[in-house]
Amino acid sequence: MSFDNINNVNQQKSNLFKLILLTVLAYIVLIVSVFIPFIGIIGLALISIPSIKLMLEGRKWESILCALIGSFVLFFIDWTMPVFFFVFVICTALVYLYCFKRGKSPFFIITLNSILFIALIILYILAVSFARQENLIISFLNNYKTVINNFPADPLVKQYMQIMAISETQFKTLYEQSKNIFLMLPYLIPGLLLIYIFFSSLINYYWCASIFKKSSLILRSMPLFKTWDLPWYYVAGIITGLILIVIPYFNVSYNFILNAVGINLLIVFGAFYSVLGFSVAWGIFDKFNVALIWRVLIILLISFFLILIVVIPIMGILDVWINFRKLERH
Asked: What is the pTM of this model?
């Protein structure tokens, strides 16, 4: 499919000032997400849209200017952050320009943008670590471990124990039972970050396709949600994750690392198969002509019960072989 309307003379040009203002507002949303984490997905999806639009209109220098001015909002946090996000926004805009000209599929663009962001994060950590002459990841893990180890001695914790009438013996027992879980949490950041980035890229593409259509910049539409699918071999991620978690204990340090890798794999592929499970459910809703309001209520109801939430990714995995939706697979 060809997309050759990028230089369409009848194409209405966007207002640069409004797009810069939108970029600044998107960065403010991103900053607010420090206090409300899931809002960050929206902020991350929004910040690149104005620059992408300008880039697709052939206004490359204005796209760069828009990204540059918007990223200045982050200067009061840290001077390296504007540089990182400026590079990210421009690279994302260039990815869209490349894929737009070649008619690439939506999921190709989403995947490429996700990989790009992850690569930039790795480069950012390496660059900052080199500049400060310290390993940022090791420093963070050591500081976190110190906080967890000293947690029982914290004055606020002791004050809380007094208010809640919790004895030191009770607290110590609870602390020892929970300590390993808390120590594991930082090691789960990679998996959570991958999902965070993927969903922000997904939302970003959906909004771009919807918004740009009004100004004759036609991106390929997302497939119907009920037809979303994954190649069969993605199930290897789930299987590998389970094997690494249940592998026999033979060394404390190795077991910790294997468990961390296994849980990260389950987080990533579990999220993918959860989406696929909801896609299967949506296809079933369509088959029985379930009203939209009931679909939303059922999905919300499922989200409130842990047992039902576990059923959703299992349904996504089973669909690979059972093919509930009767999709044509090659």
From this structure: 0.84
